[in-house]
């Protein structure tokens, strides 16, 4: 068969501790990794199949951004789409995700970059600091998909990557 194979590069951005590594590892390796050093940056690989197309996907699990760090320009180059992540148990990480997005859009120079908003740690219901509606409202403002996930219980993890790949396809036909 002449199956199509496409290369896709994704970066995961967000405040330290929101679960960037846990989500990436749950998706690529199928287990909940804990604990994981917040300063480690790694690239993971996984094939995502969608509508008969195989997407050879590289996932850059970035080291946590805080408000004082300058945005790495290498996060803005050669990357097809972004996962912008906060934790539903951290108001600060939710505030930070807008700052990170501003820096990202500045660095890539366009609002037309595929991205999704993720509120991770949805299993920690009793510690919730950010309502689902707040996340949804922000994503609506941005005009991007919104997903609440749990890396711990593998809830909506595939969904994140599937939605992002779809975003990428909508943005750049045939590339
Ligand atoms: P990163 O700094 O954004 O890469 O965050 P990590 O992936 O290292 O996760 C930070 C901490 O949150 C670790 O102790 C993880 O085990 C924990 N964690 C990550 N995702 C979840 C989740 O979905 N649910 C719960 N309960 N804990 C999580
Ligand atoms: Mg990490």
TrEMBL record:
NAD is among the record's keywords: no
Primary location: membrane
Location(s) in or outside the cell: Endomembrane system; Plastid, Chloroplast
Membrane topology type: Lipid-anchor
GO CC terms in record: chloroplast; endomembrane system; membrane
Domain of life of the native organism: Eukaryota
Keywords: GTP-binding, Hydrolase, Lipoprotein, Magnesium, Membrane, Metal-binding, Methylation, Nucleotide-binding, Prenylation
GO molecular function, one term: GTP binding
Gene Ontology biological process terms, A to Z: signal transduction
Catalytic activity: GTP + H2O = GDP + phosphate + H(+)
UniProt KW Hydrolase keyword: yes
UniProt record similarity statement: Belongs to the small GTPase superfamily. Rheb family.
Protein name: PX domain-containing protein
Provenance organism: Guillardia theta (strain CCMP2712)
Part of the full-length chain shown: 133 to 307 of 316
